[in-house]
Design goal:
The chain is built from 16 helices and seven strands. It is of the alpha/beta class. It has three domains: 92 residues, Conserved hypothetical protein from pyrococcus furiosus pfu- 392566-001, ParB domain; 100 residues, Arc Repressor Mutant, subunit A (Orthogonal Bundle); 55 residues, no CATH class. The strands form two sheets. Strands 1-5-3-4-2 form a five-stranded mixed sheet, sandwiched between helices. The protein has a two-stranded antiparallel ribbon with strand order 6-7. α6 packs across α7. The radius of gyration is 25 Å and the shape is elongated. The two termini are 39 Å apart.
Length: 315
């Protein structure tokens, strides 16, 4: 994500954070109430425990070295955020990269904003902070959403609202967690993109998923190439061709119409599947949307129906 286009906080997160008030703390960082609102403190780094809700597991040496050099040259432009621990000391809420970089510089103290956060707000804020910096890979992001749903009982709609994304994006990312551990590790290591990983979901056999994942890395396959290969491996290509010949007998008739071709291409990009538009005359026609598995159908339905899908399912 570019620096000039930061991701907007979700409405749900704004609601969570509005309830988390700055903490009045003494200047010694003990957590005792002070006479005035002093939420910005200088605290000992050794007193700060890691954020156990931190979704990010990978911190590369070059990025930490670069950040440490920046902090050494310009100072710490943004304090870290912490909350008080019940047994004393502090727990990191946001700013682990800054904290690690400060440690590399030999700092023993760091500027910190002290706030009160419940566990759900802790995890949500950690997710959003990383998302705004494009720091999370697809697996880390999906696992964060999974924790919000599993541990705190949020729905996918609530998660989407909290992090400022649409529900379809959340649903698609959660599906990445169904891939074999070895393939997920390839995503975490940056060998596979999120779109590559999602294309692999068309294959149900884990060994075949792994084989194609290895092929992606070895041959540097594009996402489109992987989608085609995945459908071939899943055994859908022949079915698709025979279905297309039966349901779209005049496919050549619309291939010469640039307007229809543009519509088809827009729908393919939006739905990420094969789409055919057949004009029948008298302003009538047939729109055919292909899917290649039950999961693929679920994905398409999420895109088409969006937030109304729950009502549709309950009907």
């Amino acid at each position: 994500m570019s620096a000039d286009a930061p991701r907007r906080l979700g409405r749900g997160l704004e609601a969570l954070l509005s309830a988390q008030k700055p903490r009045n703390t003494g200047s010694d960082g003990s957590g005792e109430a002070a006479a005035g609102p002093t939420d910005l403190q200088t605290i000992r780094i050794s007193d700060i425990a890691p954020n156990h809700f931190q979704p990010r597991r990978t911190f590369t040496e070059p990025e930490l070295a670069e950040l440490a050099a920046s902090i050494k040259a310009s100072g710490l432009l943004q304090p870290i955020t912490v909350r008080a621990r019940a047994g004393g000391g502090w727990e990191l809420v946001a700013g682990e990269r800054r904290l690690r970089a400060a440690g590399r510089l030999g700092w023993t103290e760091i500027a910190a904003i002290v706030r009160e956060f419940d566990d759900r707000a802790m995890l949500t804020l950690a997710l959003v902070e990383n998302l705004q910096r494009a720091d999370l890979n697809a697996v880390e992001e999906a696992e964060g959403y999974h924790r919000l749903i599993g541990e705190f009982g949020l729905t996918q709609n609530q998660v989407a609202d909290a992090v400022g994304k649409d529900r379809t994006t959340i649903t698609n990312l959660l599906r990445v967690l169904t891939l074999p551990p070895s393939v997920r590790q390839m995503v975490e290591q940056g060998h596979l993109t999120t779109r590559h990983a999602r294309a692999l979901l068309a294959i149900k056999d884990e060994k075949k998923q792994q084989a194609l994942a290895n092929e992606i890395v070895a041959r540097q396959l594009s996402v489109r190439q992987v989608e085609v290969r995945a459908r071939e491996i899943a055994g859908h290509s022949d079915t698709l061709r025979s279905t297309g010949s039966r349901t779209n007998p005049t496919s050549n008739s619309h291939s010469s119409d640039p307007a229809i071709r543009r519509i088809e291409e827009q729908l393919r990009r939006r739905l990420q599947t094969d789409v055919a538009v057949q004009a029948l005359g008298n302003e009538q026609g047939v729109l055919r949307i292909s899917f290649f598995s039950h999961d693929d159908l679920e994905r398409v339905l999420d895109i088409v129906l969006g937030d109304t899908r729950s009502d549709f399912n309950d009907a």
